[in-house]
Amino acid sequence: MAIMIKTPKEVEKMRRSGAVVHEILDYVRGFVKPGATTMDLETAAAAKIAELGATPAFKGYHGYPCVLCTSVNNEVVHGIPSANRVLRDGDIVSIDTGVIIDGFYGDSAITVPVGEKIAPKTQRLLDVTRASLESGIRVVKAGAFLGDIGAAVQEVVEADGFSVVREFVGHGIGTRLHEDPQVPNYGRRGQGLKLREGMVLCIEPMVNSGKPGVQVLSDGWTAVTEDGSLSAHFEHTVAVTADGVVVLTQ
After folding, report:
1. Half-sphere exposure of 105 (CA within 13 A, CB side)
2. What is the pLDDT along the chain (250 residues), one digit of tens a residue?
3. CB neighbour class for 109 (10 Å; exposed up to 12, middle 13-18, buried from 19)
4. Residue 200 near residue 38, CB atoms below 8 Å
């Protein structure tokens, strides 16, 4: 495992790419409404990325065709935007994107309710997934362990009767979109790699309202819940610094 340690100057570059990712997601959120298609979100995001002078991180990555991943309802991650996928009142859509600026990546995801008819349990899924991300971020510091992050996420999720996806995890990030180490959303405190100043990680809980199992569809990308239950996904890029954890994508 080769962990790429970033200098403070490199972390500052990543703060810029992270801020652009945040701006894009905030912009695209405004297009989420009943009757919109996931391709409408993609078109908006692509235009915003170009306007901000960034390079999309996802498009062309291992052949992926778009700048966004848009995963609706029971889709966990890596849903491909489509003009045929119409959002309906009561749906949820996870929007994941990344950019490259000055050679460094930023990566973040949000899950957004569509319209006003969100069922209480669906809203609870969003709230708990976001809270589990915040819980994972709070334990990040030099000297902490990867297992501390996973345990902090898992405890919040399972306390509410939801489940953590195992097949997909967070990751290191820097001059590549995916670097070591992997960052699971489950684990035991005090176990795994010890965190060091200069590490930059993507923490990204993927949480199912039913069981944790997922499967990948025939398009080779879209992962869905095995039991058809809803899934939510939130992600931030964070840096371990001398002053503690810094969230780069907010």
Report:
1. 22
2. 889 999 999 999 999 999 999 999 999 999 999 999 999 999 999 999 999 999 999 999 999 999 999 999 999 999 999 999 999 999 999 999 999 999 999 999 999 999 999 999 999 999 999 999 999 999 999 999 999 999 999 999 999 999 999 999 999 999 999 999 999 999 999 999 999 999 999 999 999 999 999 999 999 999 999 999 999 999 999 999 999 999 999 9
3. buried
4. no
Closest CA to 203 of 170, 168, 232: 170
Measured CA to CA, the distance from residue 100 to residue 249 in angstroms comes to 13
Alpha helices in the chain (DSSP H): 8-29, 38-51, 120-138, 146-159
Return the amino acid letter for 250: Q
Query: Are 14 and 174 a contacting pair, CB within 8 Å?
Result: yes
Burial of 35 (0-12, 13-18, 19+ CB in 10 A): exposed
Report DSSP state, residue 145.
Answer: B
Domains present along the chain, CATH in parentheses? 8-243 (3.90.230.10)
Q: How far apart are CA 92 and CA 73, in angstroms?
A: 5
Burial class of residue 212, CB neighbours in 10 A (0-12, 13-18, 19+): buried
Closest CA to 234 of 138, 112, 58, 57: 112
What is the CA angle 107-202-31, rounded to 5? Answer: 35
- 86 HSE (CA, 13 A, CB side): 5
